[in-house]
Q: What sequence folds into this?
């Protein structure tokens, strides 16, 4: 039993919710105060100027930029290949950034700094501590705050001349066209193929250029879709979505922080060129960044595919039917970067972390050998932390090491454990000879299923893996 | 026997376990189709990844179903889509 002064689980959750709400309110208040202070300063400046008769203007100019604009963007204005008219166009332009994460963070900051007229920021998630190693627009103080709010605050602090809109409900088939309609250019800075196809289709049916980047691990890609006469769209290049198991996700595969940073900055470069009307926009070319090799490669692409369902000669995706298109069915994946949660085992082959802990402690109390625990995570995750009595065999090596698994079961006394604190397990599953553990409870199920095919019938999976163990039994565990 | 340099990116690199591979093609099968068949033979788990990859011959986009001729020294890149960010 927990001591009385420790908050119970539900109380703790309520306190966490309260804290997140307070942080959100604080972020909004800070923004309001900053805005009010800025307005006050502007008002004070104009009152001072109005004290006497306005001095006669001693210069001539025929552009729309104020003195503040000219000072702020002076280095753009000095640049022969950019200059006054490009900056004016940029200041009148509007950009939608879908995703305020690893790509969206640097893209939004650079576009705000460069003086884009209007910036739209889309997200649905809140800032998490694991975001901060690459999503540099957010801060420790804003963990728990909505990402669009947090990003808007950073942009406003950087450049108050930019109008920033937040779209807090994320990007989905129902709101896609309504959101995209209001902007000149769209940035794909999302983390999943489902949203990528949706953004593409919305841009194609509304005729908006799409500056698209992606990054996973140490690889990055960048191109501008749907720009100019003949540039292909995302579906022209990737008509089929990769199978979910072939999609690398930052949440599983990891990502080197500055790699999405580099790609997001390059997205900002393309937008500035595109809106400013300078240079060659990276359409019909795919830029590939291999960070480990330190190599950029540019692949020349073909034009539109005539049979493309979005931008081809007879498109089947239209303004009218886009909202009803089932993107989740098309990609087989939810619009998040989390791997789908599997449920392949019957309940009889699954135990909760609490049940396993019960077996472990009753073995310890009665002096029996601890139950056999097999951890199938990759080596880098296992070495970060693992259960004290766990044996490590990565999922990929199960087939080759199945004899080792059988030895492990033979060596444990777990088969007999059926009394004391583990009565529940003992009664329900007297056969549990091996407890299989992974990170989130997907591979552990696949491992149990595979072991059954290999003749090991008394293995069970620990539901939700180490993540669930940490959540329900030991919050101090450094899970990733 | 033309020697082809194959470059693997992202998931293809992960599955093949290397970033570069020299491949010798037969004179009478010097095209991308034969190269892809040979790669699948060498790295069976590459097969499903290849289904949605972009191929580039000397930095020029090629569809998987195309049968583009290859010659000595050509460089073929296997580029899976990335979707993270
Ligand atoms: Zn297309």
A:
């Amino acid at each position: 039993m927990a001591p009385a002064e420790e908050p119970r689980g539900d109380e703790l959750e309520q306190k966490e919710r309260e804290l997140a709400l307070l942080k959100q309110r604080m972020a909004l208040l800070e923004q309001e105060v900053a805005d009010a202070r800025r307005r006050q300063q502007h008002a004070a400046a104009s009152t001072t100027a109005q004290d006497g008769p306005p001095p006669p203007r001693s210069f001539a100019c025929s552009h729309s930029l104020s003195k503040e604009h000219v000072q702020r963007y002076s280095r753009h204005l000095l640049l022969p290949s950019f200059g006054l008219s490009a900056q004016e166009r940029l200041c009148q332009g509007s950009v939608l950034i879908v995703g305020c994460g690893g790509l969206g963070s640097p893209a939004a900051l650079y576009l705000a700094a460069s003086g884009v007229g209007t910036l739209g920021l889309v997200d649905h998630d809140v800032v998490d501590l694991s975001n901060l190693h690459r999503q540099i627009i957010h801060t420790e103080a804003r963990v728990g705050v909505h990402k669009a709010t947090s990003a808007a605050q950073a942009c406003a602090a950087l450049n108050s001349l930019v109008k920033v809109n937040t779209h807090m409900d994320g990007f989905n088939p129902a709101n896609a066209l309504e959101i995209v309609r209001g902007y000149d250019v769209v940035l794909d800075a999302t983390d999943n193929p489902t949203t990528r196809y949706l953004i593409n289709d919305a841009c194609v049916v509304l005729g908006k250029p799409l500056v698209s980047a992606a990054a996973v691990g140490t690889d990055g890609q960048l191109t501008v879709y749907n720009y100019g006469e003949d540039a292909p769209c995302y579906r022209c290049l990737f008509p089929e979505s990769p199978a979910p198991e072939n999609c690398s996700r930052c949440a599983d595969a990891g990502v080197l922080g500055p790699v999405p940073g580099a790609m997001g900055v390059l997205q900002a470069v393309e937008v500035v060129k595109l809106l400013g009307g300078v240079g060659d926009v990276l359409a019909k070319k795919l830029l590939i960044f291999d960070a480990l090799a330190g190599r950029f490669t540019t692949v020349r692409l073909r034009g539109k595919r005539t049979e493309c369902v979005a931008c081809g000669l007879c498109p089947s995706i239209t303004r009218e039917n886009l909202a009803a298109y089932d993107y989740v069915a098309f990609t087989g994946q939810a619009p998040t970067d989390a791997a789908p949660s599997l449920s392949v085992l019957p309940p009889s082959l699954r135990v909760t972390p609490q049940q396993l802990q019960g077996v472990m402690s009753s073995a310890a109390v009665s002096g029996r050998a601890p139950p056999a625990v097999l951890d199938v995570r990759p080596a880098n995750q296992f070495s970060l932390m693992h259960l004290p009595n766990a044996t490590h065999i990565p999922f990929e090596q199960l087939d080759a090491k199945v004899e080792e698994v059988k030895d492990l079961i033979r060596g444990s006394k777990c088969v007999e454990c059926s009394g004391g604190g583990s009565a529940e397990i003992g009664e329900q599953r007297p056969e549990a000879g091996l407890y299989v553990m992974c990170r989130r409870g997907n591979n552990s199920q696949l491992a149990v299923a595979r072991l059954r095919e290999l003749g090991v019938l008394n293995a069970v999976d620990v539901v939700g893996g180490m993540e669930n163990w940490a959540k329900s039994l030991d919050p101090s565990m450094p899970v990733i | 026997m033309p020697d082809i340099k194959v470059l693997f990116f992202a998931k293809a690199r992960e599955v093949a376990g290397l970033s570069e591979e020299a491949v010798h093609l037969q004179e009478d099968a010097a095209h991308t189709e034969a190269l892809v068949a040979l790669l699948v033979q060498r790295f069976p788990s590459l097969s499903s990844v290849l289904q949605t990859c972009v191929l580039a011959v000397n930095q020029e986009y090629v569809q998987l179903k195309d049968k583009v001729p290859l010659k000595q020294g050509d460089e073929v890149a296997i580029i899976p889509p990335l979707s993270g960010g």
In short: Residues 69 and 79 of chain B are 19 Å apart (CA to CA). The two ends of chain B are 41 Å apart (CA to CA).
